[in-house]
Queue: 4 jobs
Job 1
Amino acid sequence: MTANSSETREGPEPPTLGLGGSAALFGAGALLLFLVTRIAVPTFVSASGAETVVMWFLAAGIILFGPLLLTAALLLHRERRQGRLVSLGARLWLRTMNGGDWLWAIGGLAAVSVLTGGIGAALRMLQDGKTLHPSFMAFEQLGPGRYWILGAWLPFFVLNIVGEEFVWRGVALPRQEVAFGGWAWLVNGIMWLLFHAAFPWQVLLTLVPITLLLPYVVQRRRSTWAGIVIHAGFGAMGFLVLAFGLA
């Protein structure tokens, strides 16, 4: 186990989540993401005439994160009925962050940012400056009269970050640790990368650093909050760079 040696498991061991269960859970998410990006967003845009990125916020919130959060809640409810869930905070690795957790989270965010930036720069050089974001995230640079998009993004941002970390790290990773021990972060990271399979391959390459480093930090520190810090910092930087035309 790669957990912080100062932390011990509180309460009963969660049920195991092996390779088949992991593939089913993350695969269902990947299918929902495919439906959102390839069917729902174009349909919503065609029907409403609204900006593509706003319809992404709406469709992903309803079709992707809604079902994922419901599934996670049902899994936790089943654990409680089986007597495996005593403390929700301990089960989800949501204890208060200490100094070590903050150091790992900030260091992880810095490493992810540097590695992602390097991969992105190399890809842009190889592709003559071609943009590296999905088509549904394409929108005109924000300016007077368009800052309202930030208001539409903020609730989606919270749902995206907290929702994914709750499902993939809080619920799934501790169960994967029962099955895979100290290598659970790697299984979690590979599955999380494949969850984004609907994205262009160039985007998938830029996601490799965060999809591997974030689960490692979370398992190493047994802190889902650390994952939220890394994911939120990375996601916010990415969106704001696009929004203000910084890349």
Job 2
Amino acid sequence: MNSALQFQSSPYTAFMQESTVDLGNGIQLHIEAGGNPDHPTVILIMGLGAQMLFWPDFFCKSLIDHGFRVIRFDNRDIGLSSKVRHKGPRLNAVKLMGRFALGLPNDGAPYNLYDMADDVALLIDRLGIEKAHILGASMGGMISQILAAKYPEKIEKLGLLFTSNNQPLLPPPFPKQLFSLIGKPESRDEDGIVNHSLKVFRLIGSPGYINQVDAIQTARKLYRRSYHPAGVLQQFLAILCTGSLLKLDKQIEKPTLVLHGSKDRLLPPSHGKAVAKAISGAKFELIEGMGHDMPPHFIPQISGLFAHHFKS
């Protein structure tokens, strides 16, 4: 690890330390690291509009206990990382979504997922890591696929969780789930945002495993840490202006494990299967009963599968 970086104790998690890393491309990423610096590194990449704290502490701790150093971070435009101010014309998301579903190219977003993958490549360099295991969830899984195809020399193995390669004609997300993610809350005050977050958790989460009290506490913590809805929309536009990753998947030569929940109503399991099919030698595992989230119930199983994959 780069010894010049200043780390402080994380205000959220006893076993993690936080720092801000200047990538040198106009973006600063806020990161947290935990575990023994001499152990192999796993970099966790989160999904659309999701701060790094969406990687549950229990999950990070499980990977650390399996013998890894764990790094999670806020993507650009979210949490405590740099926000991107967009000067260009407003884009029509509905029109872009239609073209995206058919596999037609889109452009005009302030940045795309290739730029976000470049952020992670620069982060690896800045941290002084020779090679890292990459584990991406949802949009973070899309960024991870680009990273593995473009920067194979920086990557050991690839883990993907409830993600997609956005190839044309995959079954679209259920509309209610998608629009809950990019929709507007009824009010902009803390309670309005927390209620909206709760609705999202219920719609995309694992049926029967949503803990109401935990969900409310998490939503409050995230709101107080950072609230930046413009960033969520810009990340969504980044996905729409990146399009299909199918060609890139064919270039990936890293050992890859794809996990997907059987009850995922945001990205149905066929998305994960399409990714595993496109990447040579990739393994696919369906997690029975899991949605588009990581409830404590499933964490021992998920962390065990990824730890085994990264070690084997």
Job 3
Amino acid sequence: MLDRARAEARLDDVVADHRFEIAVVFPAVGAVTLLASAWDLLPPFLSFNPYFILFGTLVMRLPLAAGLAPLVDRKAAVALLALTGYAFGIELFGVTTGWPYGDFAYLIELGPMLAGEVPLGLPVFFFPLVLNSYLLVVLLAGPRARSRILRLVAVAATVVWMDVVLDPAAVALGFWEYYPPGTYHGVPLSNYAGWVLSAAVSVALLDWGFDADALRDRLADCAYLLDDLVSFVILWGAVNLAFGQAAPAVAAGVLGVALLRTDRFDFAVLRDRIRSTRQ
């Protein structure tokens, strides 16, 4: 237990001391390298390098990992393991059958691939959609988030909204493709119905696994817990802008406004850090 406490404290210090690099620099560099890969501006060994993609993604997940680590007891660990199993199961089922997200296939290896079909690192791509949505709703809704029905509806809507940003950008980059291409920047509407299902399962597991009062207290005390959402807005908002996809870029901007309302990311500090890098 002591070793775990020390590890959590060390991780907390690393994330707190490097918020700008994790939440701003990594997604900005990620957006540039992904776009350069899509436009054939990088040498083959760097273009969409799966290990670079996975490494960058893991770094951007550090605020979530450090923020939630003190809350992960046995029950929460079981919930996260169940959510991991669900993520792999529904993705493999979806690739095989086309349900519930629509008929699609990965075109780029996003790290090692499980059964040659889905990324082995899938949880680090899947978890942010549901965890960030859950945390954002709990924070913005305040006492109203104690209502399970409101929480389910609001989290499901937020997950779908995040995927309104993510999926068109991923399709434009060539990460995956739907067959036939959908009406929304190549994404079918069935994909969003599938995410409603995934959000409902996720809310049920997170509600069961995490102590609600402890989670609210952690949200109040941990300034960086939503920094992963900052990374999401920067990375996928920039990619959508680069491809001229106005609707998902605006959707990313709406998430940015929601982040501003949480008053969690000190944009004055961000401004000062940007100025210091220019000097």
Job 4
Amino acid sequence: MNYRHHFHAGNFADVMKHTLLLQLLSRLNLKDKPYRYIDTHGGAGKYNLSEAPAQKSGEFLSGIHRLAQLSAQQKKTAPEGVRHYLELVEKLREQEGKGAYPGSPWFALQEMREVDTATIFEVQPEVFQQLDHHIYDKRAGLHQRDAYEGLLGVIPPKEKRGLVMIDPPYEIERKDFPQLVELLQSAHKKWPTGVFAVWYPIKDRAMIDRFLKKMSKTGIRRQLVCEICVWPDDTPVGLNGCGLLVINPPWKFAEQAAESLKWLAPELKMHDLGGSTTVKWLVGE
């Protein structure tokens, strides 16, 4: 498995994932008690969109680049969660150059408070070295470890509260993601009150329907589906859209996510029939 996020950093899927990640953490910040943030596939922590991998794919051009090119007045019309995401991207670029783009561990540590802690996994040696170089924060524990077995070893955390961000390389998953479903069942059984956010690609709608049907049959309650599609579902381009399945979403997160995705959709769509969004309960209380 040789997946490298460097080719995809800053694309529309990253925009969606990171905007909603920040909103999940902002909701957790509303309570005084500390929490743990766990990132199962932390990647390099930061990326440079001016370097060869990103330039070769050009995916960022239809993602963060589009939003960065908006006028100040257009950005003002964005929901608070989207504005906050853009402000953090700009903060890093002011520090490290216009090609800089953060990964999820960097975003999370910006949003977390001093009392909160992070556990970040990355199994690939070369990428872990980059993560170790880019993320230096006393609140973060970095682990070169396979998250499919590592996650179950660190939950439930001592804080009892927290969020697990799961964004695996789907090249190693089969069809309707059985390995992921099994991991979620085991993790939820160990930590039923934890918040679990699972990013997934939308390439084949039938496959996603099977995945969500499997999840609905797990017996896990409070599963929220958030999706954005920049192409129509049946377009053979590789990645038509993406989703975030959130187990135990915090109070009011669904409404905030719906508002953000509705604003992002017309800015990120790649086709006149693209730009659709969904925020719905897969399983309720």
